[in-house]
Amino acid sequence: MTTPLLKATGLNLRFGAIPALVDVAIDVAAGEVVAIVGESGSGKTTLLRVLSGMMAPDAGDVLWLGQDVLAMGEAARRRLMRTEWGYVHQNPRDGLRLGVSAGGNVGERLMAVGARHYGNIRAEALSWLAKVEIDASRIDDLPRTFSGGMQQRLQIARTLVTHPKLVFMDEPTGGLDVSVQARLLDLIRSLSRELGLSVLIVTHDIAAARLLADRILVMRRGQVVEQGLTDRVLDDPQHPYTQLLVSSVLAA
Amino acid sequence: MTITVVPPAPSTLEGYNFAYLDEATKRMIRRALLKAVAIPGHQIPFGAREMPLPYGWGTGGIQVTASILGPTDTLKVIDQGADDTTNAISIRRFFTRVAGVATTEHTAEATVVQTRHRIPERTLREDQIIVYQVPQPEPLFRLEPRRMETKRLHALADYGLMHVRLYEDIARLGHIAKAYDYPVMVNRRYLMSPSPIPAFDNPKMHRMPALQLFGAGREKRIYAIPPYTEVRSLDFEDHPFRPIRAPHACALCGSRDTYLDEVITDDAGGRLFVCSDTDFCAERQADSAKEAAE
Questions:
Q1: Structural domain that includes position B78
Q2: Of the partner residues B155, B171, B235, the one whose CB lies closest to the CB of residue A103
Q3: Where among B189, B205, B233 does a domain terminate?
Q4: Do B171 and A140 touch (CB under 8 A)?
Q5: What residues contact B283, with CB distance under 8 A and at least 6 apart?
Q6: Are residues B249 and B180 part of one domain?
Q7: Confidence of residue A252 (pLDDT cuts 50, 70, 90)
Q8: What is the pTM of this model?
């Protein structure tokens, strides 16, 4: 197996008496889509925040290409965050600038890494809007005039514009209706395949995990109770909690 | 009954320290100034004092001026380019009374120039200091309301946000619409607000021989540009910075390369374009009158 892009070992974090992460280890290889599933409060989002360096764990290491993320300076981490990493928030309003046009939102990361040619930035923004199926005529509209699904797609475009290697996604389909969810999942899958992107996706939607993920981690009370290839875990769950989780999915 | 004749107020006031501020305050401001000069464009906090004029009238500029003024200095004060407006006159008189320094309206004669909204048209020399009155020292103020976050952005030189703003202008209006307080990069490191001078004046800051000091009284910040420092206005490669001026000649001196004010002369649509720098305009008029006489 090739060396993983992201490798975390022995992560521990407590919020007072509540264990948020207990001895969590995870690695993500290049081009791999890994899903983290579990009930709410199981530490999924906390794990994502720790892995992306937004929160420091009590113990443990996070290595990005062999480099210790937690020991990095803030400047280096921010650079990483806007070049090789991307973060898609659950609520697009957290990830977008609502007072800035769609084109400006997509262009922001380009400008942050030094793009200074207006024509090129705009062309790039247009091509990304096309990739996420937003009409080119909406480029100068404010995101607050967009529907929820469009906002989420715009956030994905904004994140992917600098061609990151790894994208963290925190329940990107949460709060969207089913048909919009399906299109968004389809979009994420095709983009990640096309660009050879690694994705670490947090979701409580087992169906979404099955559709997208190569591997799956099941979390409960801060612990990874089971992990493995998606189909293996979902078709042949070993841990009682995973069995419960899989059996509780409504078959449509 | 005898009538006591009240003598006219002395030209300098008794009972005040030289230049109004006490020496400890001046020392504190000078230390901030030294720091500011050492890190061009970086905002240094300082303990701004209450001054005998309201915030927004130049309390920051006055404190900086008071701290650098010596008895042999000659002071010029500009308000929107003019020497004869309320703000300019009252600040000049203030320093006449509390410091007894000479004042002038001529840029060439001044050693210290305190200014609001303009840089003189005449090129400043190495032996001059220009002090700007600054209402809002934070260039990212409108874009990022949290002071902590803007400090972090400055520390990391993370200025993509300002370019997003310029991008928005071009996308909506076809050109960068900011005509004053146009953001500059100082010494390729710090993003700086040049105080509300017109964008037309921005190129004058680039490698200026004079020391440039900026004082914001309400916001309690001092920053500076040492002589001959690189100052670049932000722009895009395909939308370069352009200094904006009204496409007219001055109605009084005929100048075609100075910054102009538009003056409404009557209520029938009459208007006049005149130099905003009154001293420069008067000099040009005197020169042409002399030539005509010869």
A1: 23-233
A2: B171
A3: B233
A4: yes
A5: B106
A6: no
A7: very low
A8: 0.85
**Final residue of a structural domain among B203, B233, B263:** B233
- Nearest Cα neighbor of A43 from A19, A65, A59 is A19
* pLDDT digits 0-9 by tens, B194-243: 999 999 999 999 999 999 999 999 999 999 999 999 999 999 999 999 98
> What is the pLDDT confidence band of residue B10, given thresholds at 50, 70 and 90?
very low
What is the rounded CA–CA span in Å between residue B245 and residue B262? Answer: 11
Reported as a single tens digit per residue, the pLDDT across B77-86 is 999 999 999 9
Note the pLDDT of residue A180: 82
Q: What is the ipTM of this complex?
A: 0.84
* Helices and strands (DSSP H and E) totals, chain B: 7, 12
Which residues on adjacent β-strands are paired with residue A85?
A: A166
Enumerate chain B positions whose Cβ falls within 8 A of a Cβ in A.
152, 155-156, 158, 160-161, 163-164, 167-168, 170-172, 235-239
